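User: Please predict the structure of the protein below. I'd like the answer in structure-token form so I can feed it into my own downstream comparison script.

Assistant: Understood. Taking the following sequence of 208 residues as input:
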Amino acid sequence: MTVVRPIGTRELAAIAAVHRLAFPDRGLSLLGDEAVRRYYDWQLTGPHDSVALGAFDGPALVGFCVAGVFRGAMSGFLRTNRAFLARRLVTRPGLLADVVVRDRARRAIGALARRRPRTVPAPAGGASFGILAVAVAPACRRRGVGRQLVAAVEDVARARGFDRIGLTVDAGNDAAIRFYEALGWVRTPAGAAWSGRMERSIDAPRPT
């Protein structure tokens, strides 16, 4: 039986391993374990109000979810780790031949070029609770692990007084979109210009 419980920085190595298994072709994964570890370290220790939940099959971490209120989730990570990331690209020049890494590097340079405060304020109108990442090891998919993690993080959002929870998914990732829609999530705003934003009302009944 898979057990979901809070996790923290002690599990960073396991989190990085699951991330790279779940998303082997993502730019962050291609930068290596240490880059992934640093990314999640920032999400758990930066100026956020975040929560991390892990799904365990015995002692093994087989999935995780990171969610909460984030202030500079990507820009802060880039600023904090810019020297490390630059060294990684310099020592692995072949990475820039990968279109995913090249695109992420271009975006990162653009983000660093923009002057932003070290701590990004909460959005106008109040803080927004969102899911940053849900990852499940491929060997454990189709066992309800992702569903358990999403349900658990929705409970956290409810306990903290939020009435809605959001996330952004790749608009071309049909499998992920179907997964969230099956859990009662809806695209917002609906229409042809949809960018991948999805939301769910905390009070809405969960699909069975």
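That's the full token string. The longest helix spans residues 99-113.
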